[in-house]
C-alpha cells in the first residue's frame, strides 16, 4: 500500500480528491491536513507517508512552509490553481504539479509516474528518485500578477518579453507591463525553451513576438510589444541565439 496524506484547506476540494483517489486500491490515505500549523504538528508527530497530495496556498501560509520546517522523505504531488510556484515545488521533492480543476487522466498519470519510480523490490532511495525527477522539466504556462488589491492570470503565450529593471522583473504584454515575483534566472529554468530565450542579463524574449532582427553593427531585436529600451543580444549569446531561432 502507498501511504498517502492530503493537504488541502478547502473541504470540498479535499473530499473530491479523496473520492478520486478511492479509484486507486493501492493508495491508503493516512491523514488529511488543512493548515501549515496542523501540517507541521502532524509531520513532527507521525511517520511520514510515501506520497503527499498538497495544495500550495493554505489559510495560514504556503504548504512549502511545512516542509521547510519539517523536511520529508515523502514525495509530493502539488494540486493548485496557479503554476507560479512550479520552480519552488520541484525543489521540494515534487513529482508532479496538477492544476485545478484536477482531471482524472492527469491524476492517474501522476500516480503512475510515482509508481514508476519505485521498483518491485522497493530499493530506490530518496536521492535516486530525486535524480529521476530532475530529468523531467516543468514549464510555466501562466503567471499570477498583482494589480493593486487584485490578482490577474496572464498566460505565458501572451507575454512578449520579461525584463529586469531596478531589481524587479516585469512582463510585457500587448495590454501593459506587469511586475512579477520571479527572477530572470528562475524564469530561464521554467519557461518553454523553444519559445523563450534570454538574450542578455536584462531580457528574456518570446519568439512569437519577434518583429525584426538587426545584425549590424550588433544584434538587436525588435518585438511587437516591448519597453522603450532597445533589446540587444549579448555577444557571447549570438551563436546560441541563432541556433535557437532555427531550432
Description:
- It comes from Chryseobacterium oleae.
- Keywords: Phosphoprotein.
- The chain has 2 domains: 1-115, 3-Layer(aba) Sandwich (Rossmann fold); 128-243, Beta Barrel (OB fold (Dihydrolipoamide Acetyltransferase, E2P)).
- β15 and β16 (220-223) form a beta hairpin.
- It is built from 8 helices and 17 strands.
- Residues 121-126 and 132-136 have low confidence and may be disordered.
- The chain is of the alpha/beta class and 247 residues long.
- It is elongated.
CATH top level label of the largest domain: Mainly Beta
Low-confidence stretches: 121-126, 132-136
Multimerization status: single chain
Would you identify the CATH architecture of the largest domain?
Answer: Beta Barrel
User: What integer is the average pLDDT?
Assistant: 87
In percent, how helical is the residue content?
25-40%
User: What is the CATH superfamily of the largest domain?
Assistant: LytTr DNA-binding domain
Number of helices: 8
| CA-CA gap between termini | 45 Å
Order of helices and strands: EHEHEEEHEHEHHEEEEEHEEEEEH
Shape: elongated
Rg on CA atoms, Å: 21 Å
CATH fold description of the largest domain: OB fold (Dihydrolipoamide Acetyltransferase, E2P)
Count of DSSP E strands?
Answer: 17
Which structural class is indicated by helix and strand composition? alpha/beta
Largest sheet: 5 strands, parallel
How many separate domains make up the residues?
2
What percent strand?
25-35%
Pfam family, one: Response_reg
GO molecular function: DNA binding; phosphorelay response regulator activity
Protein name: Two component transcriptional regulator, LytTR family
Keywords: Phosphoprotein
Amino acid at each position: 500500500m502507498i501511504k498517502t496524506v492530503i493537504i488541502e484547506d478547502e473541504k470540498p476540494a479535499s473530499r473530491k480528491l479523496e473520492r478520486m483517489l478511492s479509484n486507486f486500491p493501492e493508495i491508503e490515505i493516512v491523514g488529511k491536513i488543512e493548515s501549515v500549523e496542523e501540517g507541521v504538528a502532524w509531520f513532527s508527530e507521525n511517520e511520514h507517508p510515501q506520497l503527499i497530495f498538497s495544495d500550495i496556498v493554505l489559510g495560514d501560509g504556503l504548504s512549502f512552509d511545512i516542509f521547510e520546517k519539517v523536511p520529508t522523505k515523502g514525495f509530493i504531488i502539488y494540486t493548485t490553481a496557479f503554476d507560479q510556484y512550479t520552480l519552488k515545488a520541484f525543489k521540494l521533492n515534487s513529482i508532479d504539479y496538477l492544476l485545478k480543476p484536477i482531471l482524472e487522466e492527469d491524476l492517474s498519470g501522476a500516480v503512475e509516474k510515482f509508481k514508476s519510480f519505485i521498483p518491485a523490490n522497493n530499493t530506490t532511495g530518496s536521492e535516486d528518485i530525486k535524480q529521476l525527477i530532475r530529468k523531467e522539466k516543468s514549464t510555466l504556462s501562466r503567471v499570477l500578477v498583482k494589480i493593486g488589491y487584485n490578482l490577474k492570470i496572464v498566460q505565458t503565450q501572451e507575454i512578449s518579453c520579461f525584463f529586469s529593471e531596478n531589481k524587479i522583473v516585469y512582463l510585457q504584454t500587448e495590454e501593459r507591463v506587469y511586475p512579477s515575483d520571479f527572477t530572470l534566472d528562475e524564469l530561464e529554468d521554467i519557461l518553454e525553451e523553444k519559445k523563450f530565450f534570454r538574450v542578455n542579463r536584462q531580457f528574456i524574449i518570446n519568439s512569437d513576438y519577434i518583429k525584426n532582427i538587426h545584425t549590424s553593427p550588433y544584434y538587436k531585436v525588435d518585438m511587437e510589444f516591448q519597453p522603450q529600451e532597445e533589446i540587444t543580444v549579448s555577444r557571447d549569446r549570438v551563436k546560441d541565439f541563432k541556433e535557437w531561432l532555427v531550432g
